[in-house]
Amino acid sequence: MDDVTALASLLKQPSDSMRFERGTVVADTSPTPAHSRVQLADGRIISVLGVAAVDADVTVIVGGGVAIYAPAPRYGVSATRTAASVSNASETVLTWSTITADTHTYLTAGSGTVTIRNAGLYAISVSTDSNRGISGRGYLQIATTGSKTRTYRASIGVGEDKPGIAATLALAVGDTIEVSLYQDSAGTASVSGTLDVWRVSA
After folding, report:
1. CATH fold of 76-201, please?
2. What whole-number distance in Å separates Cα of residue 84 and Cα of residue 193?
3. What is the pLDDT of residues 12-50, one digit of tens each?
4. Quick check: helix, strand or coil at residue 17?
């Protein structure tokens, strides 16, 4: 039985037969790769259709003798930057002028700092567009502070005017992310761009 069939089966049951349960995934036993075992808050262990990491805290939907994982909440932010000045030969934190999606106030419009609101593994991607190609040194970087203080830097090749960078990081509540650009094009550049920071797993 696949996830769609299982969900359809659940939805056919009377509403009072379905319930949500919180639990923790425990080690499975072979050969059941399409199922996981989840220990519920009351100590019972049930078999759940689907696979999740051991020790993950999960929510499952139970009904009609079937249990499936509830869809994970969506956490994160997407934002854009209208073309704005980045000085020559100076590392500049990029600010984001328009928030296109933000589930839990990760970012304030006009700010350059994303604050993590829900712990987990995050996919971070940045793309930029400049009116000037790099003629000297250049880089785009993602810097985090908090539980992990890290800098991830991608060099920009000579003549490149659309640099981007991506990283996947495990982050804790309160950690921050900033994106910076250093460009040496013998003049001030006008730089627009997009930012995406989305949790891909708990």
Report:
1. Jelly Rolls (2.60.120)
2. 10
3. 444 446 677 778 788 766 655 567 888 988 998 888 887
4. helix
